[in-house]
Amino acid sequence: MLRTVLTATALAALALAIFGPITNLLLWAFTETWYFPAKLPQSYGFSFWERVFRPQGNAMASLWNSLLIAALTVLVSLAVAVPAGLALGRGRLPWRMAFLFLFLLPQAFPSISVHMNIARIFYGLGLNGTFAGVVLVHAMQGMVFSVWIASAAFAAVDPALEEAAANLGARRWTVFRTVSLPLALPGLIASAIFVFLSSLDEFTGTFFVGVPDITTLPLLMYNAAMEGNYQIASITALILLVPSIAFMLVIERFLKADVLARIG
Amino acid sequence: MISRKASLLLIAPALALMAALFLYPLGFSLVSAFRQEDGGGWGAGNFLRAWQFYSADIVFSLVIVGLSTLLVAFLAAAIAGYLTLGENRWCLAVLRWLYRWPLFIPFVVAAQLMRTFLAKNGMMNNALVELGLLTPFTTHSYLDWRGIVITFVWKQTPFVALLLAGAMAALDRSTIEAARNLGASRLRLLWDVVLPQVRPSFGTGLILSFVTMMSVLSVPMMINAQTPTLLTVDMAWRINAYGDYGLANALGLIAYAMTGLVAWFYLRQGLKENR
Amino acid sequence: MALQIAKTLLPLALTLAGTGIAQAQDTLYVATGGSQNMVDYVTDYLGPMFEAQNPGWSVNVVGTGPGDAGSQAILEKLTAQKAKDSWDTDVIVTAQLKTAEMVKDGLLMKYRDDIDTGKLVTSDVAKNALGTDVDGYVMPMFISQTAIAYNPALVDHVPTSMSGIRDWAEAHKGAFGYNGIKNGMSGVAFTTAWIYAFGGDADVLMKGPYDKAQEAGWDKAFAALKTFDQSVTFTPGNAGTLDMLNRGEIAMGPVWVDMFYSWQQDGRLNPGLKITLPEPGMPGQPYYYAIPAKAAHAEAAKKFIALATSPEVQAEGIVKKFNWYPGIDASHLQGVLDQASWDKLFTDIPPETLAKNAKPFPLGGYFTDMLEQYETQVTN
Description:
The complex is a heterotrimer of chains A (264), B (275) and C (380). Helices cover 78% and strands 2% of the residues of chain A. By secondary structure, chain A is mainly alpha-helical. Chain A has a two-stranded antiparallel ribbon with strand order 1-2. In chain A, helix 3 packs parallel to helix 6, helix 6 packs across helix 8 (172-201) and helix 10 (217-226) packs antiparallel against helix 11. The longest helix of chain A has 33 residues, at 58-90. Chain B has 275 residues and is mainly α. The model of chain B has no long low-confidence stretch (mean pLDDT 86). Chain B is built from 12 helices and no strands. The longest helix of chain B is centred in the N-terminal third of the chain and has 41 residues, at 45-85. Chains in contact: A-B, A-C, B-C.
């Protein structure tokens, strides 16, 4: 009995710790006025929503920027990661471990100092403050994850199935298209979603490479927060929260434990 | 199977991207850190200045990120452990649904959440005052090092817990059952039987978290950009206000050294155990 | 009927012809440092006005952020394009220290004599930026001033001097807040005021000559500031200080006067809060309009700045809407600006106090040393 009470208390504390800050954000997003010493907002409303979504405001532009950049990032990073994953998971690749290790390296170094130097290099190439520049930076980060997930997904495909198809006379491309790809697809979709989300949420790289010409939602949110516009920051944060939480709720459908276990 | 040549061709674009956007900038940072500011030439001048300007922040970063990693390890082990060994079906379902919420919430959003939540007159203190646990005059702001630690732990625990729970689910249940039949308590089971078997996943998750936290810029900027603060803020400041890449890169190298140290420590422990 | 159709179509035809002459759309690129209110000023007020007066032109504005970092971003943007023939930014709005650097680096165009409003400003800030001769390269957009804001409900005896503030803050732990030097200029201004008050001869720092020996007294002042920092709350920026004042988390702190009044005007700030300008003074600064040396649309840029520094815009936009002190000489605003709007600028700080206690920032050399020593001696 005591044990159940303790467990329930611990769970309740965890729920408070997780949902407290989120509730706070929701409150701020619909607040009109909230002065000290009021404990809760004095009035609620949608006037800040109108301000965020007014056509001349930069929130809509940032939202489109963010979505466009994220979509392009997925394309670029999957375009290089799927072949690489295939080679790592299925190929007779020399130095396979060395390559896998290499793709782990960016995770082993704090990315900020890489980002600030990319910014400096991009200045020279005229890529700073351009869509291409931001997409490249995001794609680099996304690629690292998608290479690992893709190689795990391809490695999890049973070779016997591919051989069976090959024995039936299917050509290599056909085998890939009809057997390997469909079987690895859930993992690849998961990695696509993952790359999309991480690009949508990316801050540091955009901060160095995109600013001030390219503003994405996280940067808009940061600026609003630093300017003390809590409502605008909270509304922007809420927009960013929706895809994050949706993905969190469905992740296990795509990323089976066996694929997860192969990461790391 | 794909031939050697085809495999190399397939992996080439990824390697090219990697070389251009990771290895080259990395090399750039090394060169720039050792380049003397005035008059050119090589030397450790940037590191001397880094220490002179930011020694407090260097120590602070290591302590804050280290402490956060430890707390993440503790909480993640508790959550994943309960998910694996817990018996109450109802509690399991709630926990499984609950713990992952912050998983994909970006750091910048987490920082904003905490900034309003942990402030002196933020929601947490207000709630405590309403409950009669505090008076308005005894509240204080958590927006200092504690705010950073809380945000990091809040955001990173689900990630490590997810990895860990995944690894634990893949374990062979028979050893666990055997130990359970011998009457081992759940805490002992977790510590003696389960955790040693998932060491690689656990270590990887923690090191990834450590590295991630070392390079987060938004959280310290929004929660505590003042004295002392994390190295990322100093790097951004050096570059944005002065264009001083030398000193910023020296700080970057110091951050590399810290993660290197942690990774080495972990690998060495692992080797010892395997011997 | 035919006439009716012709009447309807005529404006359309004219519009089409008009756009044809103006070579479709041209865009004027404006880069502005400073807080969000400066971006809003161009987006919501000045830009639309320029577009209305110059059909075929649209104004694109990017904000590069507060403090020296914001102006440094513009400096780097221009430096990066140095070798090119045509640069992508037409008008820049920057703070003094970095503008001076840009003039020294030859990144700016001498334009003030080319525009009509150039002679409306005679003050020293238009000629000299922290010791660097910038005559002809800049037009002040506005002058802004820092001051100490406080909550009268929480502060009984308002300190009137820097030493009074020091003693008050040390007696009321955590009730004084400022934003250090990394996050906006109001914290830098407070640090400057501290050095002016406790670091030796302030006049030499403002007027020169530059001599390291003058910094002898700084060590003691910075040591005292380090002790002082133990009893203050750090805020996350210019806006952060105002926000914490508003939420009752601090009772006193340095702010920009214009932001303070604007927030009150917007209803974002508790109307009971007040500001004061303590002895021996706190610094203020102009923001400058300047044109990059190889701006692609230099002529339009001159038109834009002439509009921005005309008495009407200075009265309506700068003073009335955004609560800055005007960039051009105040005498030119007479007759254009109503007395009530002018008086509003002096609600809490009367003109005499302003004349006595409003100081410039120190000379470039001292300024840089001061920021550096703050990091090595106070925060580390």
